[in-house]
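Batch manifest line 692
LIGAND: flavin-adenine dinucleotide
JOB: complex structure
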Amino acid sequence: MTVTHATGRVLGDANLALLEAVQEVLLPGDDEMPPASRTGAARAVDAYLAERQALRAPILDALVAVRIAAARRGGAFEDLDEAARVAILQEVEASEPAAFDALLVQSYTGYYTDAGVQGALGVPSPLMPTGFPRATEGNLDPARLDRVRATARPWREA
Amino acid sequence: MAERADVLVIGAGASGAAAAWALARAGRRVVILEQGDWTDPATYPQHRTDWERFRQTTVNRDPNVRQLPEDYPVDVTDTPIDPLMFNAVGGSTIHWTGHFPRFRPSDFRVKTLDGVGDDWPIDYAELEPYYDRNDSNIGVTGLNGDPSNPPRSPRPYPSPALDATGEAFVRGLEALGWHWWPSDAAYVRAPHHPGRAACNGCGPCDLGCPIGAMSSAHVTYVPEAVKHGARVVTRARVREILVGSDGKAEGAAYYDRDGKLQVQRARTVIVGANGVGTPRLLLNSRSSRFPTGLANSSDQVGRNFMFHPVAIVRGVLPERIDSFEGPAGALLNSQEFYETDLSRGATRGYQLQLVRDSMPVGTALGRGAGKRLPWGRGHRAAHRDEFGHGLTIVVMAEDLPEAHNRVTLSTMADTHGIPAPKVSYTVSQNSRALLDHGIASATDLVRAAGAREVTVDPLARVAGWHLMGTARMGDDPATSVVDRWGRAHDVPNLFIVDGSIFVTSAPVNPTTTIQALALRTAEWLDAHFAEVAA
Ligand SMILES: Cc1cc2nc3c(=O)[nH]c(=O)nc-3n(C[C@H](O)[C@H](O)[C@H](O)COP(=O)(O)OP(=O)(O)OC[C@H]3O[C@@H](n4cnc5c(N)ncnc54)[C@H](O)[C@@H]3O)c2cc1C
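JOB STATUS: finished
ARTIFACT:
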């Protein structure tokens, strides 16, 4: 089992900034949860690209599609207001579904594997060594199964 | 050339490891050839913050996704279900979730009782002592007294108290008056063998247990076999089983970790390469004497392939119950619909396996029967409403053997140029009817538990966990590959111990039965060694 830390870089600064802006729309956060920009989500996706070649084409395609759609509106994605950004992402989602899906899956993955996000959700980060001991504590009281013992169909003799 | 072994075991998974342990312990010189490597639980992903991403990469359960050097590709162009496995010391038990229900007596008499499939040449009573022995060897958690199953030996560890997820399921089960029981589960609740700690409920057992609590073969039988003198050769991919002029197996030719072809000689050979790997190996072991593949005079090698077709039903509760906590797949099960009842529109039955729900990434992506959560302003609220709220039920139908469902050789090949297996499989009408009934039942159950919303995956593609039937057992050499002891009809010193030898599949997870059969075969081989190896 090869479990290595993803640390590489594939995206240049401009693409990384665009990815951050896109993720800000995908995962804007709220009172309880940080927006993607306050997590390591974009850098995490960049690192996944370094590790998994197959992801590069779809995600770069999605970013290019975002850039072109923004340029058609006469500007850079990062400079547009939120409504325009949302409209662009909806457009790319419809026109480049596979590429957009790859971007979304990796963005969700980067976001929800961020230690701060996990902490806000009440999940130990990392899972070990804490785990969830209460899920395996105590012993089941056999009396809980009295009804089953009394009513269950027996197995068929064979 | 390596020393001739008494017993060559191919595959260090659940079955091969159990057989190797039993024979090494009996004093036989055992060599295990395993195409994968050792893995160290201390390096498993759960020790890292970004553990959940490894489901998409190197620890994915699908070899076609992982594409590690030790994996072989599986041609899945003709199956709606992907066969899943792991190739390492410990085999697919590195990935499993340890749900450990036994077959019932009726599962060995399917033809007699229901007029379909075939009867096994053995019965439950013959296997029972090996089930018990296996449970105590590897460490199993459970509760005695299930009235729907024959009594069994005291469970080594007691079932834990119901957590919030268990309570929610039981609320529904009691409202409906259905059978339920805590699952026999192959994990330990106190330190067992050295290096095995008590389960701390961390959750994603399918990524490998990071503390050895799960009773996977690489922390149970393999180290014990090694203690008794077994030699494990890793990154050793067997190309073919070699047969002498007398028609007996002589050993195997394999590629070592440097890609060099080597020969391991042996007096007897045991194959435990799983329900896809074993027929692949036999079909690749062609010779002038066995032109259609080894042990295949019946033309049954690769045929009768059975999965357990699976549907997944997920209910969403209004309240968060942290249903992601605890051993992923081994919580409760309902065997209310286990035995044949023709009023359901199908013969045989299904199990409802009540399991844990997704972690944060899985929730966002809609893993299992969940739905992909929307992006944008609505995302956070959607995640909050779903995460820890889900009740997931795996509907697992008994599959019946059908000759056209089969493993053959593909035009694809692995990194050594060995032809890959191709799985050709269709879901039968009977299995479909069982799944449909199961979906309705599981929906009733989550609704009775209080679910406000229900989503369904009617046929889970990434659910080919159980691989069975492709070298089936029988008394008649014309219609089966191995006899009642797992011994090939055509090759008297060749044995098969994995799920290939299943005659029928029952509606329950297979591994306790696989390991019981492996222990039984090993004991028989040891007792008859002089005659078999002569
Ligand atoms: C995600 C997942 C969850 C599961 N959950 C459960 C569960 O809850 N309960 C249950 O009962 N079962 C479960 N299973 C199934 C269980 O893992 C298998 O039934 C069991 O491991 C089968 O044992 P085996 O020995 O037949 O094969 P495996 O454990 O698959 O071992 C076969 C071994 O043979 C090796 N091999 C194959 N070909 C060659 C070759 N040519 N040369 C050398 N080595 C070779 C492989 O590398 C592998 O290590 C699960 C499986 C998966 C994938």
